[in-house]
Amino acid sequence: MINMNDATDDMAQRMEAFRKIWEDTFSKMTSAGMSVNPGAPPPEAFREIRSGVFRAMAESWEAYMRTPEFLKNMKQSMDTAMAVKSAMNEYLTRMHQDLQGTAQEDIDNLLVAIRHTETRVLEAVEAMEQRVNARLDAMEARASAPAVKRAPGKKKVPAKKKVAKAKTRKS
Amino acid sequence: MTTEASSTNTWLQWQQAMIDETIGNFQKLGKLPGVLEKAQKIRKGVTPSEVVYEEDRVKLLRYLPKGEIRHKTPLIFVFALVNRPYILDLKESRSVVAHFVEAGYDTYLVDWGVPTHSDRHLTLDDHINGYIDNVVDYVRERNGVDQVNLLGYCMGGTMSSIYTSLHQEKVKNLILLAAGIDFSTREGLLNLWTDKENFNVDQFIDTFGNCPPEFLQSSFLMLKPVQNLIEKPLNFWENIENEKFIDDFLTMETWLNDNIPVPGEVYRQFVKNLYQENRLVQGTMPIGKHVIDLGNITCPVMNLMAQFDDLVPFCQSMPFNNLVSSKDRDSILLKAGHIGLAMGSRAQREVWPKVVQWLADRD
User: Fold this and answer.
1) Cβ contacts (< 8 Å) between A61 and chain B: which residues?
2) Which of A166, B81, B245, B309 could form a disulfide with B239 if both were Cys (CB 3.0 to 4.6 A apart)?
3) B84 to chain A nearest CA, in Å?
4) pLDDT of residue A171
5) ipTM > 0.90?
6) Which string of DSSP letters, residue by residue, matches A22-74?
7) pTM for the predicted model, two decimal places
């Protein structure tokens, strides 16, 4: 529920900040104009006044763009822009879907699904790479280890094949 | 009597000046069609190059060497995702790239291309551990070396520092150019505007997909509204008859207005994790499965900063040298702005020859 008093106060604060920025700007601009040498030739005098005015304006605007009032205004206009865009997106999506066409949202959802699949595949490949590397390391270590003489009469037992367990992943 | 005569004289002078100004303005008006024609012919990048590697929208440019390659370690420029990278090779006598090519470096540049809506889900991890890593591997293989030199500009500098912290073994020297590292400062307006209470980045990206170029452009313009919206057009008008000024102006404006969208997820991560949460300096910045620790950087680093940078205030880049473990750390602070640091005449004269030498000493 909007409190009318708060809303009025808020508006008054913003108006006050806006009035202040213009007041500051004009007072700085006036003092910049006053500091000009009246005897200077017209084009130079004009340029001096102008650069003083711009400097004054730049300082006041920079200060204004840091005020809570400006930030509030900025946020409000952003929120409005986003609300309008959202409503338009929603409307267009509904229209496309009603016409049995493909909406932007459908493509986005498809892209997200592809990215999830891609991530899962990459994770699986990485896991396989790690396992292969571990096997290779073990084989290298075995190859470089000194050969052990087998006791006579003892048969070589073939190594059991390990079956990698399927990994369960969170999607 | 004398005072009266002098005031009449001044008044006449002013009147004459007004008449001259009006006539001058009409003459300038006649120059406009020529200027518009010139604007159509502006070149985007001047040093001859070839595309040697492509992946999705990303292209790797290799600048054709002038004479023989004199340095073993190749150099890769990593630009930001915000604008086009030809600012680094804007025009003759204003090209950062040319300094290195002429010094005999095998020089490459990552051109990120123009993201489309289908790139909105690409993250910083995709760019850093995907594209940049693939490019670095390609260059290492092509040049038969284990390591490369990296030079990152602006957001590209932030990404290069993250890359180096993850893949230090592949980077020989790291040069940062106006790179945002510590986002705790509220000196810059961008830092203030992107605060959590002022900007809901999640809602923004969920609504728009990618960050629209017009949004970025207007934010940059608003950093200095009087300078950008009033003084600049006035300067242009006053100097319309000055060929050199107009050439520089048009080249610069072409680049400034050549904005591209930023992939949505990258923008979200950049604003959230850096501008809003300042995670890089805290050692909690997540990139894919990794958490970034700048302390992993041990190679020589050169940190270039601009004193009047309104986009990345220098206090945002300054802490970098204290966060890395490198023993060989250098920095240069130039009295320039964000773009002037790269292509300003002072930077061309004073900074880049020094950086070229710095790199040569560590080849």
Assistant:
1) 225-226
2) B245
3) 26
4) 31
5) no
6) HHHHHHHHHHHHHTS-TTS-HHHHHHHHHHHHHHHHHHHHHHHTTSHHHHHHH
7) 0.82
B195 is catalytic: no
Is B231 in Cβ contact with A78 (below 8 Å)? no
Residue A22 — very low, low, confident or very high, per pLDDT cuts 50/70/90? confident
Q: CB–CB of B136/B76 below 8 Å?
A: yes
Q: Are strands B58-63 and B49-55 parallel, antiparallel or unpaired?
A: antiparallel
Rounded-to-integer distance, Cα B125 and Cα B286, Å: 9
Q: C-alpha angle with apex B219: B248 to B83, nearest 5 degrees?
A: 50
**pLDDT tops 90 at residue A8:** no
Cα–Cα nearest to B302, from B341, B275, B345:
B341
User: Looking up tokens 């699904």, which residue turns up?
Assistant: A113
CB B226 to CB A54 under 8 A?
Answer: yes
Put simply, the answer to whether B207 touches A89 (Cβ < 8 Å) is yes
CA-based nearest distance B223→chain A, Å: 8
The residue to which tokens 């629209």 are assigned: B212
Interface of B with A (CB under 8 A): 10, 13-14, 16-18, 21, 117-118, 120-121, 189, 192-193, 195, 197-200, 203-204, 207-209, 222, 224-227, 230-231
Average pLDDT value for residue range B97-104: 96
Q: Is the dihedral of CA A127, A129, A130, A131 positive or negative?
A: positive
* Residue B335 near residue B308, CB atoms below 8 Å: yes
Token pair recorded at residue A29:
């601009």
Distance from CA of A117 to the nearest CA of B (A): 13
pLDDT at B3 over 90: no
Picking from B107, B112, B111, the residue whose alpha carbon sits closest to that of residue B63 is B107
